[in-house]
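Following up on my earlier thread - several people asked me to post the actual chain instead of describing it. Fair enough. Here it is, all 632 residues.
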Amino acid sequence: MKGILAKWLNHKDLSERLQDEEEWSREVEALYVLLSNYYGTDKLVLKASRLEALKLMRSDELIERVVGLRKILSDDPTDQTLPNKSEIPQILDEIEEQIADLIARRSVEERLERVVTEKMQERHEDYVKEIKRHVLQESSTPENAQTLKKLAVLEKMKTVSLKSSASDVLRPRTMEEIVGQESALQALLAKIATPYPQHMLIYGPPGVGKTSAARVALEVVKSHPHSPFLKEAPFIEVDGTTLRWDPRDVTNPLLGSVHDPIYQGAKHDLAETGIPEPKMGLVSDAHGGILFIDEIGEMDPLLLNKLLKVLEDKQVTFDSSYYDPGDPQVPLWIKKLFDEGAPADFVLIGATTRDPADLSPALRSRCSEVFFVPLEPRNVQHIIRQSAQKLGVTLEDNVPEIISEYVIEGRKANSILTDAYGLARYRNPDQAVVKVTCADVYEVLRSARLTPFIVRKVQASFEVGRILGLGVSGFLGSVLEIEAITFAGRDGKGAIRFNETAGSMARDAVFNAAAVIRELTGEDLGNYDVHVNIVGGAKIDGPSAGLATTLAIYSALKKKPLRQDVAITGEISIQGKVKPVGGIYEKIFGAKQVEVRKVLIPLENMVDVPRSLQGIEVVGVSTIEEAMNHVF
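Reply from S.P.:
Thanks for posting it. Predicted structure:
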């Protein structure tokens, strides 16, 4: 830099000018000119004035002018020392170096400022372009001629609609429209029309009104003065067979899930900042109302256990390794869900067609149980007439009776009626009021390959060795024809044969019967060939046919005829005592279907007989002798 400055001053080396004072003066003048160019004249004067160097700068004395230069460059107002003339060359060299450094620094700074300015300009232009792009996205739409055409097609499709489905039209809207379930409806309402509603499990065959009853019950109790349900209380309905979930909780429509940033897809606002997004499930949608799960017995056991935890806590908790409670970018609603959980205070009502023993004991312990029963023929007939009024059709005489012979559930009965209505409408398109005839119904029944639910009804007669037993499968009871025949054995030896398909417990009942008969008559069945048959090859899983089997063998052995309008259930002990069995209500219902007049059940089972039972006589017996008084 010193060489550059010397070249600029167009002088010889300073050491050659030490004896020439004029050269020093020109050197000093040149240095002042450089400072004036560097700072600017005004700023140089202001600086010199601040440092008390203005007089020195304007002095005619060379030494004072040199001191002025030194004070300006050193930025020291206290420098008052006057150098000797012999020190001037060295001072001028130092001043020259300092000025050279200033000029070099200025050059670098200007170059850097220029680069920075260029970069800032580029960034500014990019920023302006980004802003313009966002503005265009917000102000413009992705629509074009093709997309608008497709939108118009969709809008036109919405203007065309068919009538609502028959199931929507015929669905019960009030408690009065649900027939044949008076006891169950009363129990259902009693459990939710209180300040402390209970979780419930509803058992019963399909198509008898379980879902409709739960939905209507909520609307009824909303107006009850002590009900905790508000007017806007929701009724959330879901099918347990369709509840699928991911063990990682990425997907769980029932309880809710957490969408971690890598799973959020198009939701970039949270994904870009790495914030997990919780999604509330159906249990939160049902908050303050009822969550109805149809076919709850088909739910995944692990998911059911998680649901039970929600029932206890009345809230759903969320967890994610991506959640940082200290992150200020986390929205408050997400922070609240992770820290406090989502509210889930609801009443669970689960419906199932399974047997209670098939359900989780943990679930049953938390829920009250309500049992819906199969529909009797008079109930099915009432439903048919009620549905005909909703459809606006007239019925030929005996149409409800015909349909009630083929089905025992309301949904299937309505399906047959709507099919017959459609057939009648097709045949008579111009009729203002459609009339469904018996011929229409029979044609629908033939097309559906349906057979009568009751094949043959009992008759008030007597037969030897034949008796009616009672069985149960699921929620349906049935009447079993049990017949027995005896022959004298050859050489005093006989054999007992029983249906192989009946089951081991039913075969054991035959051996119990042998002991009881020997006690009653003194006859040893080992001296006879005894054949016991269950007509139709029915399988009996329990000992409930023991009493009926014993009476049938006794009748065959003694040739005493039995009443054919009496049905019997109960286990027989080898002492001749009648022991209690299960499924009493279902068995009585099965007996009523075939018009049995009297049913014999174990005396201990009389507590299982509903008080409102009508149309059949139920008698409790404790010994076989008591049973004989009613069947012979």
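Residues 88-139 form the longest helix (52 residues). That should answer part of your original question.
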